[in-house]
Amino acid sequence: MEEEQHEIRTEMCSSGKEKPKADQLEFGRIFTDHMFLMDYSDEKGWHDPRIVPYEPLSIDPSSMVFHYGQSVFEGMKAYLTSEGDAQLFRPQRNFSRMNHSNNRLCIPPIDEAFALKALKQLVALDKDWIPEAEGTSLYIRPFIISTEAFLGVAPSTHYKFIIILSPVGAYYKEGINPIKIAVEHDYVRTVKGGTGEAKTGGNYAASLKAQEMADEGIAQVLWLDGVERKYIEEVGSMNVFFKIDGKVVTPALNGSILEGVTRNSVIQLLKHWNVPVEERKLSMEEVIKAHQDGKLEEAFGAGTAAVISPIGELVRGEKHLEINQGKTGPIAKRLYDTLTGIQYGKLEDPFDWVEKVENVKESALKASS
Amino acid sequence: MEEEQHEIRTEMCSSGKEKPKADQLEFGRIFTDHMFLMDYSDEKGWHDPRIVPYEPLSIDPSSMVFHYGQSVFEGMKAYLTSEGDAQLFRPQRNFSRMNHSNNRLCIPPIDEAFALKALKQLVALDKDWIPEAEGTSLYIRPFIISTEAFLGVAPSTHYKFIIILSPVGAYYKEGINPIKIAVEHDYVRTVKGGTGEAKTGGNYAASLKAQEMADEGIAQVLWLDGVERKYIEEVGSMNVFFKIDGKVVTPALNGSILEGVTRNSVIQLLKHWNVPVEERKLSMEEVIKAHQDGKLEEAFGAGTAAVISPIGELVRGEKHLEINQGKTGPIAKRLYDTLTGIQYGKLEDPFDWVEKVENVKESALKASS
Lengths: 369, 369
Prior knowledge:
By secondary structure, chain A is α+β, with helices and mostly antiparallel strands. Chain A has helices spanning 64-68, 91-104, 112-125, 201-213, 261-272, 284-292, 330-343, 360-368; strands spanning 9-10, 34-41, 45-53, 57-59, 71-73, 76-80, 86-89, 137-146, 158-168, 179-183, 220-224, 232-235, 239-244, 247-251, 277-280, 296-303, 307-316, 319-322, 354-356. In chain A, the strands form 2 sheets. In chain A, strands 1, 2, 3, 5, 6, 7, 8, 9 and 19 form a 9-stranded mixed beta sheet that branches.
């Protein structure tokens, strides 16, 4: 990338939109005043980085993203501390994963350090949009779409890298609550050699049907591997952990599982606490056997949106497995409290996970210089 | 769908674009003067069908299609006969397959008969865009994208159904020519339980990497099944046929193979000609064994873009299998000549495959009535 392209042009909106009240917050429906954009062409590389008012995109109907799904995305959050500072949680890992996804989808890599700089500038500018209430945050959605106006099946020669922001409510309005999940038998999310370890639209499109077919009360489905339909992969759009006989087990990364930032943080925390944790193949049969033997102590999902999502009941056909009497287990609770404590700046951050966002004025001045 | 929604509003472009010369035609880069659009909302269903000037779409950056790939598409062609009539080839099957794809992707079904009516009206209006030269045609791309401005992973409540048209050159500029394909080992297009039998972006996004990694001179990759990596599924974005010891064999539809309209037409023609044809599991080993035994007589792909694409060489790691001395075989040639003959109205149409498009004036009058 050329040096001059590191200058982020900023075009402020004329008048800000009204911000939602704390009780109006849901997930991903309201967006802030500004967004970040950058274009790519084979000739110019990534160019024209800019922060502009949030507005519709004007895109040719033949653009590849509409036809061949060449796109990637990320999800992270900005949190407001009690001192009024905005901070991010391990954002480098998200941009690094975005480049991993880009590689699988034949999308040119982004400059990760520059993306982080752009994100901080955007968050600083729209900092007033970070909600203050307990458990609320500013959801961050970086994404790349292929925009070449061409119907051939080939990597696009043009792309847009965009970051949008959405103030979101607490995932659990009444605090952390166990969910019910069902083992999915008919549908498959992805398979080794597919796009499972990339964060790309097709994986999510493929998952919609399973959720639609799931019974009432099923919050998420548990995905088994696409080959043997035997080994546990993920739950819904989260990674999954099972505490069996004192050890916490999570499926090893195998090429079809997304490497979650929360997953990685959970593993680090457990090791730090000297709780035995294993990344390995884990079959559905092993989980059922552990339940029969009274050794399935806890189960929980881990992801950016919910942080930790305890699983109170696992449904497999006619079988209903209650886990920890349907209550949040001590490990899930401790992980949730610690992760959110670090994210909101209430607890010490021994791993250097938190990244402060500079104050709005300072960074806005830089932007327009 | 409400009765009044069957009225297609037409807004003509003020001045038509310049049409490409015959030697400027490539695939999918130039689009005609008009396009068809129709919107969907959960409240109104499919509504406001309209033909408008071809122009960029204005779409919210949080629209689902950009993030979760909820989209489907179709591909077909309009042909100009020597009498100057425009005609379509089995368009009902494309709209029926679109609804099959819609079902897998949790997209509300379209009214197939109405979609065909809209398509005919659009083609009639832009009929002057159908190129006249031998082997050229008007490529038709119907597609549906999810447009709800919401970042939750759930079926969208809003969609757009769009049809765009692109004049395209002959797929083989120097006539029908055998291609070289490579057996893909690392990447998988899709798997049973996935979205393989739906025509959705994610399948094509997943396929880009294999093509990028393929050696120079490899036109397409041959996909094996995602479970055992043993059985043949498709080649590139076409269905595939092998003539072994006098019988034509094609992989049976198994939930991960797209049901091609050309595939179906090939099977019908072969049966009509009393050429033995089998739809069944076909392993790579069987094809290699047949080649060793001198019984692999022909191989070819079948799809809308190329119609019939003879395979002259099959590459598997270090092994190079030459098929029919690298030349187009008699069955491939006969299928190509017959299918294109019917499509361009030069040959009798014993199966009622061809659908005439009414003349432009008549249908334009109806449109504005």
